[in-house]
Write a structure and sequence with these properties.
This protein has one domain: 3-Layer(aba) Sandwich (Rossmann fold). It has six helices and nine strands. The strands form two sheets. A seven-stranded mixed beta sheet has the order 5-4-3-6-7-9-8, with helices on both faces. Strand 6, helix 4 and strand 7 form a beta-alpha-beta unit. The radius of gyration is 16 Å and the shape is globular.
């Protein structure tokens, strides 16, 4: 089991089953603005590791033309996603599904998605788990699908802020198998899966990788 420091993946209880993550509240607007500009006009969207459900709620509200499918593995967070969705009553936000996206072959059980979004997870899992996720997720994309990967990363092996250096050290102290992944490695993984990859700087020293399936 992965061990996380107290500074990672903080979620506070709200009413009922709802959870609230301050970090998700801080970066939701930037992620919504990003996906508004690159999302397909219509189709099915999967969010991997939806956490508390705050992001997918914001995305389903801002992008009503997409049919949103949240996912998680932790029971408390699955319950939180569904609690947020129940209050919002959005017709394009589906019930949360349990999905461990680090398991090989999960894409076979899913209809193709036009958009897959992954945010703020790779630094919290091992290199092996990240490799499995990045290898499998492209298999769940439709013919012109887009896969976005958002979060904090090393730049060519270098931590570029004091805050990132401190957080990465806390992660590795809690579990040596986890920590920041390198942007060059992410690009190599996605490119080797047959995707066309671009990289964009985001607020708070985050990055997003925009990986598009190449039409053949």
């Amino acid at each position: 089991m992965t061990r996380l420091p107290p500074s990672a993946s903080i979620a506070e209880p709200l009413e009922g089953a709802k959870l609230h993550a301050p970090s998700a509240a801080r970066n939701a607007a930037a992620i919504v603005d990003l996906l508004r500009g690159i999302a397909p006009a219509t189709g099915r969207a999967l969010e991997i590791a939806s956490g508390t459900g705050q992001h997918v709620l914001a995305l389903a509200t801002a992008l009503p033309h997409l049919d949103w499918h949240p996912s998680e593995i932790e029971p408390a967070r699955l319950a939180s996603i569904d609690a947020h969705a129940a209050d919002a009553r959005l017709p394009n936000l589906r019930r949360a599904q349990r999905l461990d996206a680090t398991q090989e072959g999960w894409a076979r059980d899913h209809a193709p998605y036009d958009l897959i979004h992954l945010g703020n997870l790779l630094h919290l899992i091992s290199d092996r788990a990240a490799h499995a996720l990045l290898a499998e997720a492209p298999n769940a994309l439709g013919p012109a699908g887009v896969f976005t990967v958002y979060g904090p990363f090393l730049r060519a092996g270098v931590l570029t802020s004091e805050g990132d250096a401190r957080f990465d050290a806390e992660l590795r102290a809690a579990d040596p198998a986890i920590g920041y992944k390198d942007d060059l490695w992410i690009t190599e993984m996605l490119t080797s899966a047959g995707l066309l990859v671009t990289q964009r700087e985001m607020p708070a020293n985050n990055l997003v990788f925009i990986a598009r399936k190449v039409l053949r």
